[in-house]
Write a structure and sequence with these properties.
This protein has helices at about 15-25, 25-40, 55-65, 80-90, 130-140, 160-175, 185-195, 215-225, 245-255, and strands at about 5-10, 15, 45-50, 70-75, 100-105, 115-125, 145-155, 175, 200-210, 235, 265-280. By secondary structure, it is of the alpha/beta class. The protein has a domain at about 5-155 and about 180-210 and about 270-280: Rossmann fold. Helix 4 (about 80-90) links the parallel strand 4 (about 70-75) and strand 5. Helix 2 (about 25-40) runs parallel beside helix 3 and helix 6 (about 160-175) packs across helix 9 (about 245-255).
Length: about 280
């Protein structure tokens, strides 16, 4: 693995350490991936494109489902997470031959040109896509007629308290946060998926409570899950940031996060998720 300094991408800052930290703390994302995989009914012998595969939790689990006659391709912006995914894969000689991991952007899927997939699996990633029409333009040619696309992530109809806290602290300290992302709502997905050629939309909502060791651990999870942008991209009205300013913002966020603390000292957080699956219908079919 590389030990280079922080590398900025469309997702955020990434290092070997941040990728390792993420892979140990991404339990909410792992749960979302498991739920989405089951929801999509992926089966033996099928081909699956996993967009935003991270450290490989979804690709390896899907490979077990499709078996030796299936095929799985995974892509992620973070080369350090891909290195972890490959490391995990190479410890599984039973599925190693049927999985490939790639460093790349979801808005450029040209490396897969000529391939056709039965499923496109997008877990905890879709909300990062800066140009969703461009994404669909690239993914549609990769779908077999009747292919299933599955998207899982935050529920755009339900703003989570952790992001309200960020807004409140920034307003109090007169800081300007860069926009992280916007979770899609059901209405937006009902608009965008049919426009791209997908129909038979089916939605599912689920919530689950996750426990963190303490509020500091919860904040660390938010940090690594947002490419270190939850607090890292805050700045003052002049566009400047200082270590003192960030320390103050962190202190205030932790104070507000006391609402999540249990008598045991652990931090409890209810995560609300939205999932959708839809079927691609070729216009020429």
């Amino acid at each position: 693995m590389s030990t280079a300094n922080n590398e900025k991408s469309a997702w955020g800052d990434a290092t070997e350490a941040s990728a390792n930290n993420y892979s140990t703390k991404n339990l909410p994302q792992q749960e979302g991936g498991k739920q989405l995989t089951a929801f999509m009914q992926i089966g033996k012998g099928q081909s699956v494109l996993v967009i935003g595969c991270g450290p490989g939790n979804d690709t390896l689990a899907i490979a077990e489902l499709v078996g030796p006659t299936g095929h799985v391709e995974g892509i992620d912006l973070d080369k350090h997470s891909i290195a972890e995914a490959d490391q995990a894969l190479h410890q599984r000689p039973d599925i190693d031959p049927i999985v490939n991991h790639h460093v790349g952007n979801a808005l450029d899927l040209s490396r897969f040109a000529g391939q056709k997939f039965d499923h496109v699996h997008i877990n905890a990633t879709y909300h990062w896509f800066s140009d969703k029409p461009l994404f669909f333009e690239g993914v549609v040619p990769l779908c077999k007629d009747g292919a299933t696309i599955g998207i899982a992530g935050g529920n755009g109809n339900n703003k989570e308290p952790i992001f309200t806290i960020r807004e409140q602290v920034c307003k109090e300290l007169k800081l300007h946060p860069a926009v992280l992302f916007t979770y899609p709502s059901e209405a937006e997905l009902r608009r965008d998926l049919p426009a791209a050629g997908f129909d038979d939309l089916t939605f599912k909502y689920f919530s689950k409570t996750f426990l963190h060791e303490n509020t500091e651990s919860l904040l660390d999870w938010l940090d690594v899950s947002t490419g270190r942008q939850y607090l890292g991209n805050l700045h003052d009205p002049a566009g400047k940031r200082t270590d003192e300013m960030l320390r103050h913002a962190k202190q205030r966020v932790l104070e507000e996060m006391e609402m999540f603390r249990l008598p045991t000292g652990q931090a409890s957080m209810l995560v609300s998720r939205l999932m959708v699956k839809a079927t691609f219908r070729s216009a020429s079919a």
